[in-house]
Amino acid sequence: xxxxxxxxxxxxxxxxxxxxxxxxxxxxxxxxxxxxxxxxxxxxxxxxxxxxxxxxxxxxxxxxxxxxxxxxxxxxxxxxxxxxxxxxxxxxxxxxxxxxxxxxxxxxxxxxxxxxxxxxxxxxxxxxxxxxxxxxxxxxxxxxxxxxxxxxxxxxxxxxxxxxxxxx
Length: 168
Prior knowledge:
Layout: E1 2-5, H1 15-26, E2 32-38, H2 43-52, E3 56-61, E4 66-71, H3 76-80, E5 85-93, H4 131-137
Antiparallel strand pairs: 1-5, 2-4, 2-5, 3-4
């Protein structure tokens, strides 16, 4: 996950940006990635100014005046102070929290259903619609004595799947 530190409206870095910049200096990081919002119509001049400061523009979108810049930590405040800059953010990668609910356990194998599986079971939760209770109350109402007839118009002998035997 990417967390961003918004710059103040007057230029410069916000409080979180200052913390990230100090941390980068302590850790002697060679570069930082900045998200730069240029003032409308100023993206080209901001990109040129960033390059003049030694930064590398990794992504640029002039339609929305957006830049993603890699630059040395000692140049971050200079980028934020450029006249065409509306806002600057320092990117920060944060670990994602574990999405599993508290107390969740791993999966465990379940036995496959068989003739001994009860009607109310986790494989087909027919008890949700009370079907298992209904079948228990009416055990002979299971289709005994019912005849089902299928009316078919015939076989299409010219169907492609009937042109060759299954054995080839």
